[in-house]
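For reproducibility, we list the full input for the zinc ion complex.
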Amino acid sequence: MARPAAFLDRDGTVVEDVHYARNIEQIRLLPGAVQVLSDLRRRGFVLVIVTNQSGIGRGLLTESDFRAQTEHLARLLGPAAAPDATYYCPHHPTEALPPYQVVCRCRKPSPGLIERATAELGLDPARSLAIGDKERDVECARAAGVRACVRMGTESVPTLAAAAALALSELSRE
Ligand SMILES: [Mg+2]
Ligand SMILES: [Zn+2]
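The corresponding predicted structure, in tokenized form, follows.
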């Protein structure tokens, strides 16, 4: 049976948004990340990071740098809160170098990353939630059929914890 997921943007949502982080030292957790992610997992959500990483296509970091960041993030979060999977888009339609300069279906706001995760991991978007700090995160999740899509970092939803609480309350509504 398809499982519910929490689709989480990475930069500005789970970790500080330093533009085009390259080194693992630049990966720093935002307040509440461990608690919120472990709570979501306890509630049965598969934890999936979905992130635009055009810095790869722009030549500012390599796929290998990004993999090291993903492993470092898992260490920082610890076993109870480490993501189950990470999906990223390395492309950009105009600013990236070949072979990354393409109009792809995975760069948010397109829904490709969530669609791929859903198919590969057996997830149920209709029972899932998504949180991001940009409008394109919300657009992407809506387009993929995710039921509760919340933008954080706003006056009314300042933190990841507030966003998770709002998303859970939306999911619990009939
Ligand atoms: Mg972001
Ligand atoms: Zn892409």
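Helices lie at 33-42, 54-57, 63-77, 112-121, 135-143, 160-172. DSSP finds six helices and five strands in the chain. Both points were considered when choosing residues for closer inspection.
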